[in-house]
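Worked problem 6 (solution included).
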Amino acid sequence: SYYGPSRNPWDKDTLPGGSSGGSSAAVAADMCTASLGTETAGSIRLPASWCGIVGLKPTYSRVSRYGVLAMGSSLDSPGPIVKTVEDAAYLLGIIAGYDKNDFTSSKEPVNDYQKLLDPSKIKGMRLALPKEYLELDIQDGVRKNFENSISILKDLGAIIEEVSVMDPKFAMAVYTITCRSEVSSNLARYDGTRYGLEGSKNGNVKEYYESTRGEGLGEEPKRRVMTGIFSLSAGYADEYFKKSEQVRQLIKDDLDGVLKKYDAIVSPTTPSVALKDKDADNPLFGEIADVLAEGSSEAGLPGISIPSGLSNRMPTGIQFIGRYFDEQTILNAAYALEKEIGPLKLRL
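Solution. The predicted structure is:
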């Protein structure tokens, strides 16, 4: 960030996750009661998991994107980052709804999510557990806490069955291509003339352009813009971007098929606890950390992450993924589990 890196309040040598890491760190450190994040492919749920709090990614179009700096326009979803499921339900009820300033926002009716919270709804709820998610390299502590959460959910009356879905690594590839293509388009306006930093005029036109584009963007945005431009370029768009969108549709159809038979999908939020600061410069680490959330984000489905426990004194998370505009079901599932496990307490 412009003011330096955000730190994870649980261990200041670790990352809070991203991209909504500052929002999550602030809530976890009791700097605020609630904050907003935006998720493109795990950017609400991942930092919530790493910071030991609750993150709710609504259905795409459930919450207006007006005022949000566009990254991936077909993916971006603003949502609550809070301490408890009840707070998530309350805040979602405030921010959800149609907005004439965002033509993608939905006119679907908005529930009183907080009033309709009911932990007893977990009894008889059918939850799908994708075996491909558990075949990934998941840390022992994350897996142990997840298995404990599954046992609790079963004791509460949930019906949990293993299902097969597309390999989540396909979602990683789709995110890399689709999101970066949209990033390159959205950031093209920041040319120093219409928007963004204006570079030095003490040279020729070429130097001016290089200064404007080079000084106004960090290394990761530059990397995404360059690969996105390549994916959209003549001769490569069909091979990369078009294929990526076709695979994205397959992922959507696959998850939709599961959710026709089940009320929600349950899995670990991310394969690991918070990574160390030294790993921040490796772009692959971030995408591997997001691998369990990317598919549902690409499909536009709602998802919520809540704490599942601690591993070596660091938080782990469990997520519930629901049907389109059915945030209430995943809120109820998360609420029921939270009542048994309880919110994590950070001692600063």
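Discussion: The beta strands are 34-39, 54-57, 77-82, 126-130, 159-163, 264-268, 303-311, 314-322.
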